[in-house]
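Long-time lurker. I teach an intro course on protein structure, and each term I like to show students one example going from raw sequence to a predicted 3D structure in token notation. This year I'd like something fresh instead of my usual example. Would anyone be willing to generate the tokens for the chain below so I can use it in lecture? Attribution to the forum is fine with me.
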Amino acid sequence: MNSRICDMLGIEFPLLAFSHCRDVVAEVSRAGGMGIFGAVMYPPDRLEEELSWIDEHVDGMPYGVDLIVPNKIEGKDREVTPSDLAGMVPDEHKEFANEILRKYDIDTSDLEGQRGLSSQFGSNLREDGAARLLEVAFSHPIKLIANALGVPPKIMLDMGKQHNVAVAALVGAKQHAIRQVEAGVDILVVAGGEAGGHCGDVSTLVLVPEIHEAIQPYGDTPILAAGGIVTGRQMAACMAMGASGAWTGSVWLTTNEAETAPVVKEKMLAAGSRDTVRSRARTGKHSRQLRSPWTDAWESKGAPDALPMPLQGFVSEPALRKVDKLAAGGHEGAKQLATYWVGQGVGLMNQSKSVRAVVQEFKEDFLAATERLNGFLED
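-- Reply from a regular --
Happy to contribute to a lecture. Here you go:
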């Protein structure tokens, strides 16, 4: 396709797929798009294993890596250990989470000992932890490195130039996009409020043309539209508004290859676009996720305010890991509580398909949409 993103990344179709599942990443890249591996939860040795596997299974096609290095995070300006961070979590928040689980017949006696397992996430959010992951990532033939939640750290920008790897940044507001362009990022991922995971509150339909227009005086940095995009016709619409391609995530969660928990996958396939909630209760920053009694409890009157990132993760992640494990074993209460990040496009995700089938449908739907638009023009 005649797209700046295709030219920049060496891909056939400007469809990028964010996923924590290496199988999805490899399949999308082999199908002509570009898989982006979500690396923030991995220690360096595990990331090395995952990227080595992708290298062996991607058939030489381009792929990328995504990290989260936020500009604002608790403890960013001082030296703190994971145990220090865990100690900052108020008893009120831990007890509130325990009460939710007990209401659904889940034992919470072992949760306190599980909080340390969230420490890797907290460490990777800091620049020193992210630097270790970057060293691993740039030792592999990646073609893109992406950062969420702020301007990429200088080390990421410098290493991108050094290794001729495009640096992308996720943005959810016009002023953030301008700062990213001024900092020298190569690609803007413009994520509307419909997106799963961390997102702003402006819709993709408004945000893409607003940012495209706003950045022109500073540089015509190519845009990937994100947020609720699960079909080729949506991708075509965003490209008509100024994007050069699409960044997708939720649509891959219900594919055959995805590692999404079966209980959650079933919920997603049955969900409508209104069955998600944008909340700070999972990470401390606003993120969109599948609604469940867990999310309802944190949004209810009397619930404690979410803690700043990464402290909220020390509350939510141990509890939700236990929920997922019990739900997989058939525990009815855990099955009700189970949730995961997903965007409002979930209402169009009604059937589990292979990754390659989804990519092919994107291509066909994109072509049909452009032909429809061309049909409105007079001969």
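Some talking points for your students: The CA atoms of residues 281 and 298 lie 6 Å apart. The longest helix spans residues 355-374.
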